[in-house]
């Protein structure tokens, strides 16, 4: 319909202005973080604010990796590895289980199906932080505090219901006829899934995977409760290393935030095509 | 060689029985059409033969094997779906060759079989296209090609033409018939369209509410329908069916018209019957199909005339209902015009009113 309505110039410009304001509110804090990563500490709290770094520097990154003489480095590499291991493992497992679950909900009838699906969705309505205390107590009993495995389990619990919900929708859109035709063409049910339904659901699975990855990658609240040392601390938790009793190292923190953003950004760009196709699946059929 | 035999086949979903113990024997290379209104169990029956639904009871035999427990892939059948069910992510060539590839045939053989099928169906120019870039008729052909490539014992068609427009449907109907002449195989074809059934079938199986009402050649079911349902379902426009009572060897209609019944109809005095006759048996004088040697003259006013070119369908009141007549070699008829109709007495169908069953020989 939008092609049919003729916009007057002032309408077009006011829409652009509105979008600009909205995007500014969303992106300026992020931009500020990125800019701060490249400025000397003295510019951070300057009044009036210094927007563009006057003396751009890579010192903050150098300090992170212990390449600077002023300050001892932080175990950023270890945090990065922890984050990667935890996020990738929990994403792969969540997508594998979620895909199976989503397929089952989309294709099979079984007793209690509606209730179970609702229960999964309701689990998403509980704020994660509300679980932190009970989780902490149980994890402590089980000896899972400060382990990657403990955190992976938590992220699985968060991600699987969402993945099931998302993939259920994608499998529902693939006609049952296709799987049946494949079975008549000589496939087992398993082959029909892998050769016909899986390739068609791939964009949906890619979007499910990226959501799961970003959730685990960015999660702070639970990770901050359940990790203690370099054995399991993730990047977002590592940010807190920059706060001391009376001071906060804003530039160092921003540099680390940039390091957190980069992989997420790269990943999003790589799967962007799938992501958009995935999110608009119903519209383009 | 593949005959298909259904013995007392039942389908239940939970407690609801939708197919009630049907028996059917289909000969090798026979083209059988299952026809009936929606919900009559024809598609369910086909899906049970395909193995996509389990038969709740009874035995399904293909060739000399009882296939009840076999998965679809082990039945050596192929099926054309109403939606075509082409694999959207594969080219036409890959769609056609998919079954052979799964079966582990070698590339050269697959290419040969696929090319042969493509040639039969005229698909050569489209081999590298995706299904999304094909027209409805082309998709339909790919779906049929995919079915014939595997050289199955039995072809199953599940309403394959209902997604096409009327013109293309007529065209594809002819192609399916030609295909069967060329690729001799047992065919089971499901449709709700009685024209498809009449034109394609060696034998028609008419189903209603999970029962088989009649099995016969197109001529048999047309000329000798066993009950009022079949009489109304086969033929277009449908057979006129009027309530009547037998008095003195005549069927007396509710408006007093008396129609003499011949000795072929086993009726008793006072019996409530339904008198059936097809529109082509009720025509204005000089415009009938079978001549007027044994005809009853009835004068009637035309309510509506539908000129179709080679014939005109006339609507007139008779026996308390509006009946349809067919005027061959038509002249222009005005609505409200009174015409002398003839009712061909040799083409009457008489049904017992209580049971709906035919009492005509």
Summarize the structure.
Chain A has 285 residues and is mostly helical. Chain A is built from 14 helices and no strands.
Helix and strand topology:
The complex is a heterodimer of chains A (285) and B (361).
Chain A lengths: L8 H29 L3 H4 L14 H6 L11 H32 L5 H11 L8 H11 L5 H26 L2 H9 L4 H30 L2 H6 L8 H4 L11 H21 L1 H8 L1 H4 L1
Helix pairs in contact in A: 1-12, 4-7, 4-9, 5-7, 7-9, 8-9, 9-12, 9-13
Chain B lengths: L3 E10 L2 E11 L4 E5 L6 H9 L6 E6 L2 E2 L10 E4 L11 H11 L4 H15 L14 H14 L4 E5 L7 H17 L3 E6 L2 H7 L2 E6 L2 E6 L1 H6 L4 H6 L6 E8 L2 E4 L4 E3 L11 E6 L4 E3 L10 E13 L3 E8 L2 E8 L9 E7 L4 E4 L9
Parallel strand pairs in B: 3-8, 3-9, 6-7, 7-8
Antiparallel strand pairs in B: 1-2, 1-4, 4-5, 9-10, 11-12, 11-14, 12-13, 14-20, 15-19, 16-17, 16-19, 17-18
Beta-strand fraction estimate of chain B: 25-35%
CATH hierarchy, class of the largest domain in chain B: Alpha Beta
* Distance separating the two termini of chain A: 18 Å
Q: Which structural category fits the helices and strands of chain B?
A: alpha+beta
The CATH class of the largest domain in chain A turns out to be Mainly Alpha
Oligomer: heterodimer
Strand order of the largest sheet of chain B: 6-7-8-3-9-10
Proportion in β-strands of chain A: under 5%
In total, the number of domains of chain B comes to 2
CATH topology of the largest domain in chain A, anyone? Answer: MetI-like fold
Morphology call of chain B: elongated
**Which chain pair has the greatest contact?**
A-B, 17 and 21 residues
Low-confidence stretches of chain B: none
Structural class estimated from helices and strands of chain A? mainly alpha
Report the span from N to C terminus of chain B: 36 Å
CATH architecture of the largest domain in chain B: 3-Layer(aba) Sandwich
């Amino acid at each position: 319909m939008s092609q049919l309505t003729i916009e007057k110039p002032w309408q077009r410009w006011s829409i652009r202005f509105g979008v600009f304001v909205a995007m500014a509110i969303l992106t300026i804090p992020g931009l500020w973080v990125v800019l701060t990563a490249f400025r000397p500490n003295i510019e951070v709290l300057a009044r009036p604010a210094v927007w563009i770094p006057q003396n751009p520097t890579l010192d903050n990154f150098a300090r992170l990796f212990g390449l600077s003489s002023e300050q001892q480095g932080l175990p950023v590499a270890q945090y990065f590895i922890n984050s990667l291991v935890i996020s990738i493992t929990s994403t792969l497992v969540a997508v594998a289980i979620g895909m199976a679950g989503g397929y089952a909900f989309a294709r099979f009838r079984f007793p209690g199906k509606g209730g179970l699906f609702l229960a999964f969705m309701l689990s998403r309505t509980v704020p994660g932080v509300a679980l932190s205390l009970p989780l902490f107590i149980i994890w402590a009993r089980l000896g899972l505090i400060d382990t990657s495995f403990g955190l992976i389990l938590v992220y699985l619990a968060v991600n699987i219901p969402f993945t099931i919900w998302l993939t259920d929708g994608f499998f529902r859109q693939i006609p049952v006829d296709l799987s049946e035709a494949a079975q008549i063409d000589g496939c087992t049910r398993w082959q029909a899934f892998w050769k016909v339904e899986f390739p068609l659901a791939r964009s949906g699975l890619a979007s499910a995977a990226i959501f799961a990855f970003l959730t685990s990658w960015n999660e702070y609240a639970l990770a901050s409760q359940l990790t203690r040392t370099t054995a399991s601390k993730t990047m977002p938790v590592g940010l807190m290393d920059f706060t001391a009793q009376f001071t906060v190292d804003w530039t160092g923190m921003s540099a680390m935030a940039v390091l957190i953003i980069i992989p997420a950004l790269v990943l999003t760009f790589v799967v962007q095509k799938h992501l958009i196709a995935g999110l608009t699946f119903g519209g383009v059929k | 060689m593949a005959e298909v035999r259904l013995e007392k086949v039942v389908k239940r979903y939970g407690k609801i029985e939708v197919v009630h113990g049907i028996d059917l024997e289909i000969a090798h290379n026979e083209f059988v059409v299952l026809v009936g209104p929606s919900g009559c169990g024809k598609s369910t029956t086909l899906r049970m033969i395909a193995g996509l639904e389990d038969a709740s009871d009874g035995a399904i035999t293909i060739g000399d094997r009882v296939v009840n427990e076999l998965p679809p892939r082990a039945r050596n059948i192929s099926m054309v779906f109403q939606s075509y069910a082409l694999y959207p992510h594969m080219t036409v060539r890959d769609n056609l060759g998919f079954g052979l590839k799964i079966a582990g045939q070698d590339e050269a053989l697959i290419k040969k079989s696929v090319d042969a099928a493509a040639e039969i169906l005229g698909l050569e120019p489209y081999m590298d296209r995706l299904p999304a870039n094909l027209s409805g008729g082309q998709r339909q052909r790919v779906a049929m090609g995919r079915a014939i490539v595997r050289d199955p014992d039995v072809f199953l068609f599940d309403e394959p033409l209902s997604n096409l427009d009327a013109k293309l449907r007529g065209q594809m109907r002819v192609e399916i018939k030609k295909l069967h002449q060329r690729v001799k195989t047992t065919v089971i074809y499901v449709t709700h369209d009685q024209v498809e059934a009449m034109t394609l079938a060696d034998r028609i199986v008419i189903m209603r509410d999970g029962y088989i009402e009649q099995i016969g050649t197109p001529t048999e079911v047309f000329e000798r329908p066993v009950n009022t349902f079949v009489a109304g379902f086969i033929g277009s426009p449908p057979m006129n069916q009027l309530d009547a009572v037998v008095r003195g060897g005549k069927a007396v209609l509710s408006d007093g018209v008396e129609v003499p019944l011949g000795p072929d109809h086993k009726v008793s005095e006072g019996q409530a019957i339904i008198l059936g006759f097809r529109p082509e048996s009720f025509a204005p004088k000089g415009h009938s199909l079978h001549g007027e040697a044994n005809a009853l003259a009835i004068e009637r006013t035309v309510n509506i005339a539908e000129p179709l070119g080679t014939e005109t369908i006339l609507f007139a009141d008779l026996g308390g209902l509006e009946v349809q007549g067919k005027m061959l070699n038509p002249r222009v008829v005005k609505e409200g015009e009174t015409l002398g109709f003839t009712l061909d007495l040799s083409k009457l169908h008489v049904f017992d009113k209580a049971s709906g069953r035919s009492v005509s020989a």
